[in-house]
Amino acid sequence: MLMIRLAVPADFSVLLSIERRAGERLRGHVAFPVFAAHGLTQDELADGVRQRRLWVVEYDDRIVIGYLLGGELDGGFHIRQMDVDPAYGRRGHGRALLRHACMVGRAEGYRQALLTTLRDVRWNAPFYRSEGFAELPIALQGEQMRAVLTHEQALGFPMHLRVAMAKPLGD
């Protein structure tokens, strides 16, 4: 059975471990060194808990197998980071987390969800596209989204493979 709940500080070490294991799936990709060098921090996770923007997904026997860290960006709901333990991947857990976060965002009055991701990794942009996200053209990117992309470039991300995406969350 699948359960999504707000994270608590006791989850942090598991979440950081999931992030590392999920990042290993990118080994050999040009973006791998950037992901490996710039993971989430305890402070970022603590902020997510305080803001009620960090959810975990538990599987059967209450094992935390994934998380989604959200926030706000340009007045929209920002999907900052989402990872599922590769041992539990491709079973709909990430999809359930994403749908839950978007549902919360919509209930809170956000009109769109925003994120940045890799366009050439099938569990990144193609996955988000299957959930209703579309590429956000530069002309429609807000100041904060442009700042996120500038920061990603400074970290060393291959920007020709990065894409900003948005999904309407309804009226």
TrEMBL record:
It comes from the Bacteria. Keywords: Acyltransferase, Plasmid, Transferase. Pfam families: Acetyltransf_7 (PF13508). This is Acetyltransferase. CDD domains: NAT_SF. It is an enzyme of class 2 (transferase). PANTHER family: PEPTIDYL-LYSINE N-ACETYLTRANSFERASE YJAB. Transmembrane segments: none annotated. Residues 2-164 form the N-acetyltransferase domain. One of its GO terms (molecular function) is acyltransferase activity, transferring groups other than amino-acyl groups. InterPro entries: Acyl_CoA_acyltransferase, GNAT_dom. It comes from Mycetohabitans rhizoxinica (strain DSM 19002 / CIP 109453 / HKI 454) (Paraburkholderia rhizoxinica). Its EC number is 2.3.1.-.
